[in-house]
Amino acid sequence: MSSDSTRRDENDNEDVPWDDIVYYEEQQDQTIHLEGSDYVAIFIAALQTIFLPCIIVMVAIVALSIFLTFIF
């Protein structure tokens, strides 16, 4: 590492207003209340990922069972 980059890093560090930066501990015991539209959005997102093939398989099995019931 060259001395120029070391000096540049030290100068960049000096420009940061460290007095204005404060650490606040977050509260972990907050509960999140979901609305109906949130549940719909979660359901649609789940359909677009892994649950879509599961639902397609379930619909196909139900349709096949109804079809086979009428044949036999």
Keywords:
72 residues, mainly alpha, 3 helices, 0% strand, elongated
Describe this structure in words.
With 72 residues, the protein is an all-alpha fold. It has a domain at 33-72. 64% of the residues lie in helices and 0% in strands. The protein has three helices and no strands. The longest helix has 21 residues, at 51-71. The protein is elongated. The mean pLDDT is 80.
Summarize the SSE layout with pairings.
Blueprint lengths: L2 H12 L21 H13 L2 H21 L1
What sort of overall outline do the alpha carbons produce when their principal axes are compared? elongated
Taking all Cα atoms into account, the compactness measure Rg is: 29 Å
Oligomer: single chain
pLDDT < 50 runs, ≥5 residues: none
List the secondary-structure elements in sequence, H or E. HHH
Strand content: under 5%
Q: How many distinct beta strands?
A: 0
Question: Quick gist of this model?
Answer:
With 72 residues, the protein is mainly alpha-helical. It has a domain at 33-72. The protein has helices at 3-14, 36-48, 51-71.
